[in-house]
Amino acid sequence: MRVTGTGHASMRIDTAAGSILCDPWVSPAYFASWFPFPDNSQLDWESLGQTDYLYVSHLHRDHFDAEHLKRFVSKKATVLLPAYPTSELEDELRELGFTSFVETTTNEVVELDGGLRVMIQALTSPTDGPIGDSSLWVEYDGVRLLNQNDARPTDLSVFTELGHVHAHMLQFSGAIWYPMVYELPQTAKTAFGKQKRERQFDRTWRYIDDLKASYVFPIAGPPCFLDDELWQFNDIFGDEGNIFPDQSVFIREYAKVGGDNGVVLLPGSVAELTTESCTTTHPTDVDQFFANKKAHLVEMRERKRPVIEAAKASWRHPEIDVLKEMKRVIEPLLDESIYLAKGVGGPVRFDLVGYDGESVESIVVDFPGKQVRPYGDEKVRYRFRTDRALVEHLLHTGEVDWVNSLFLSCRFSAARIGQYNEFVYAFFKCLSEERLQYAEGWYDEHFQNADAEDVRIGDWVVQRRCPHLKADLTRFGIIEGNQLTCQLHGWRFDLASGRCLTSVGHQIRASKAPEQANRE
Description:
Elements: E1 2-5, E2 11-15, E3 18-22, E4 35-36, H1 45-48, E5 53-55, H2 66-72, E6 78-81, H3 88-95, E7 100-103, E8 110-111, E9 117-123, E10 133-140, E11 143-149, H4 157-160, E12 167-171, H5 186-211, E13 215-219, E14 223-224, H6 247-256, E15 270-273, E16 278-281, H7 286-291, H8 293-313, H9 322-336, H10 339-344, E17 347-353, E18 360-366, E19 371-374, E20 382-387, H11 388-397, H12 403-409, E21 412-416, H13 422-428, H14 433-448, E22 454-457, E23 460-463, H15 473-476, E24 477-480, E25 483-486, E26 491-494, E27 510-512, H16 514-519
Parallel strand pairs: 3-5, 5-6, 6-7, 11-12, 12-13, 17-20
Antiparallel strand pairs: 1-2, 1-15, 2-3, 4-14, 8-9, 9-10, 10-11, 15-16, 17-18, 18-19, 20-21, 22-23, 23-27, 24-25, 25-26
């Protein structure tokens, strides 16, 4: 099996029975804020796109690059389709010209031609990507590969049961806007960023230990930020709170926990895998490349500057009445929402900065009141501040997922009173009838069917499944004193009260173990 690195979470897998191109991303994403790093735009995409199979893990735009797929990937390729609850991914790919699909079933092996075997595990929580994320398992001639990309399965045993995995590709770096965009003192941002960076690595080590693959490939990050307004997000300033460490940092941190089987893929690197070995060749010296990271970024910034300026010029739509259009789009969804509206529990304020950089129009999405209206000087728990032009563009294009556009762009600032609230972001990725109905149904099913099984962890008896996204706490739960942390997503709970310390809601069932309680 030959694996060619093609940038970020993208790779091409070649076997004698066929080739699979995974998640090709080249175009700038999220309002021209994210670019692949190292730069992959100069690869021979005409050749790479002549593939037998295409796998797009999910609809996040650093995985689903519509422009690139349309231009470079052969429409004769057969799409390996995750089993998602909505048809959006298939619809988008059909619109680009793809006509051949293998509709997989989650966790079931599919036998393709020539002895090539694949399995896709689809995650379907409303908080998994834009309504879904997935991992791809591939086997040919005894060699097995797991492309986990940035999916976060609660259990990897379904893959280990199929035999020892030789190559494990997984995310290790940040792919979020927290804590950088929050209106906090810099010392607090650094402290929160350091915690998140450590949690990212802890989660990665846990996955690596669970799968125990022969070789580990850090992929799916980090992006780079080439706009001058976002330049500070690149991890080139010695900031221990930066959440975007690169592959060279991964190798260094992995070594600290005993990891010596890490393999870096630059765009154009080729890894030849057998059941016994992995031989990798690179287009340039890897250590030297990352030692010169800042110079590479500076050169790339100048080269991409016209692309960013052209994108910015396309965002303004002064003909749009933002308040009127937000009412038209959002109010019918508020009327239908039960779980998401209750979960948000209050008004969310958007401060929209005008073209002059000074004037501000404040609009409130009032979840209890089920309306969108001008801000009335009331207290709000959640506030976003962004350029009016960005919201104009979202409304002009009919964007149904503001997370997969505005929020991931980091082109905003945020403030909140109290804990993180996942329902805020879940709602703003569900601005369509289909998505909203699915999310409401998912929460209804999971809230009505609480996990009844309890397990012992340390001196406590707790419910086995995390109240957040059902991670197995016997594997991901860590107790320190009276607090439990689920390492899958870093959520914390106060065991004495059952209260979630990370977000609104999500009470945990917990009690002291009988002998411990008796001693007290």
